[in-house]
Amino acid sequence: MNLCAAIQMVSSPDVETNLLAAGQLIADAAKAGAKLVVLPENFALMGLHELDKLKVKEVDGTGPIQDFLAAVAKQWSVWVIAGTIPVAGDADDKVRAACLVYDDNGGRVARYDKVHLFDVSVPGTDEVYRESASIEAGQGRVIVDTPFGRIGLAVCYDLRFPEFFRTMSQQGVDILVFPAAFTAETGAAHWEVLLRARAIENLCYVIAPNQGGVHGNGRKTFGHSMVIDPWGQVLACVEQGQGFAIAGIDPNRLDQVRGAFPVLNHRRFNCE
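Now predict its structure.
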């Protein structure tokens, strides 16, 4: 069994401050035995304004945020799935929200660009989000083979689209990760139930690191970063503030649940 950690942050408008915080949390998780750590969405920057991310965007493969991720993965001999960072897109006035995966030698092995963009007015609040104003949507799913199993990558708002993950399930995914910056309002209503549903319907582990607190821009995020097993049981959770939820990824448990309850073999309709 390998331990994984869903790292929770309260990221600020300052990249250097956030990288220092992420580095300490990764170190603490590694010292606790984690071999896989997952950072939340926007871990390196929660800007004061939507377009602040354009000022710190990096070219794919190079830049201080990517250098940090490679170095910390190698330093602590852990696999790192790095929430999202702003990477230059096709348009000069937009970025890609890129989720990057590094192995325990610091080598980058995968990149997923967030597909579903959060263009929403949150019910019951005055909060309005238009991610498409500064982010270009990605186009496809990404699955990466790791020592912990086949991991399907997703980010925050992707969580609300179950068909996205059913196709991954058909491709043999064992673990789904959901780096997020879920708002306090929507998180209280839907975060845990959606995560547990994705675990249950796909009989897989879920690792879900979230932002969790009040940010410099006044935004409130829900926290409750968690690890969930294939039966939908929450194995670990950190509610608010910086920290990490740590739990084991057990291949035997995965096989046991899928063998005893072979719902994935009973599907009558397949996704394309």
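Residues 113 and 216 are 25 Å apart (CA to CA).
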